[in-house]
């Protein structure tokens, strides 16, 4: 896997198994409902694709792209919309699908933005959650894995737009990001 990566934190098999579990819960919780799943670009592409295929329910999918100002490995909490939803979510059951929650700043901004549009319900599913996320008050209904406070890449997650296509989640060697 090259010298940029330090170790595999979560294997593809572990991710697949977890998404099947989460999908079963989501199927159960939204039975009889008309669920809209919203993926947050670009990181959530892999989770959306695999989670959607693990669901038995009929769902519709939409995408949003947001950007936290600033580069590097820390979120600033200042968010702007790069691409908005195509769907009017008023009265809809909406499930936001995220790759990772770190500080939670991006997500809490997103939740208040989407919440103001009057959805019937608004919940969050994230594949990964870091310890910092526990400090902000966002109710995350579905969490895949709680991970240590390390910078991870793969399965949609990038460092400087690289490594998104790795089929697993791994940690970067410190020399790559100057750590
Ligand atoms: P937050 O606002 O700090 O919760 O994080 C917002 C975004 O930062 C996430 O949606 C990711 O795109 C990115 N991010 C946070 N932690 C990591 C990481 O460990 N690896 C790659 N991207 C991350
Ligand atoms: Mg993200």
TrEMBL record:
One of the record's GO cellular component terms: cytosol
Protein known as: Hypoxanthine phosphoribosyltransferase
Sample GO molecular function, one term: magnesium ion binding
Main location: cytoplasm
Catalytic activity: GMP + diphosphate = guanine + 5-phospho-alpha-D-ribose 1-diphosphate; IMP + diphosphate = hypoxanthine + 5-phospho-alpha-D-ribose 1-diphosphate
Cofactor(s) the record lists: Mg(2+)
Family: Belongs to the purine/pyrimidine phosphoribosyltransferase family.
């Amino acid at each position: 896997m090259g010298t940029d990566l330090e170790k595999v934190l979560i294997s593809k098999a572990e991710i697949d198994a977890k998404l099947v579990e989460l999908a079963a819960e989501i199927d159960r919780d939204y039975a009889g409902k008309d669920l809209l799943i919203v993926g947050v670009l670009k990181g959530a592409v892999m989770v959306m694709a695999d989670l959607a295929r693990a669901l038995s329910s009929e769902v519709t999918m939409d995408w949003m792209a947001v950007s936290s100002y600033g580069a590097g490995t820390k979120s600033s909490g200042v968010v702007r919309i790069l691409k908005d939803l195509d769907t009017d979510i008023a009265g809809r059951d909406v499930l936001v699908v995220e790759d990772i929650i770190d500080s939670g700043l991006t997500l809490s901004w997103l939740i208040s933005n989407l919440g103001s549009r009057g959805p019937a319900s608004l919940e969050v599913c994230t594949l990964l959650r870091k310890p910092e996320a526990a400090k902000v008050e966002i109710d995350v209904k579905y969490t895949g894995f709680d991970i240590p406070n390390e910078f991870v890449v793969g399965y949609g997650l990038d460092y400087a737009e690289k490594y998104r296509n790795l089929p697993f989640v791994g940690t970067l060697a410190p020399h790559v990001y100057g750590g």
